[in-house]
Amino acid sequence: IYPSRGIWLARTDGKIYNFVNKKSRNSFMMKxxxxxxxxxxxxxxxMKKGTDVDVTKxxxxxxxxxxxxxxxxxxxxxxxxxxxxxEVRKAQREHVIRxxxx
Length: 102
Prior knowledge:
The protein is mainly alpha-helical and 102 residues long. 38% of the residues lie in helices and 8% in strands. A hairpin with a 5-residue loop joins strand 1 and strand 2.
């Protein structure tokens, strides 16, 4: 609404409304639902009128997996342990447990 245009309405509860013209003010006073009146902005938004047809969904970037070393273990050590055979890892685990018990 441009400066020096429109009509202000102040309700007794302190809420202030600013209308473009008499037509919109009278519709408000008659408690018309602006979503059902075809010339209102709310109606046009609800019915998706005037939106650009070429607007496409925003593309989101695909997350890429990135392997890092953990504090105290380099990436090479982690990959080497992962590629070990399960029997070897189990034997190492049992050896560590035996050494801790002694």
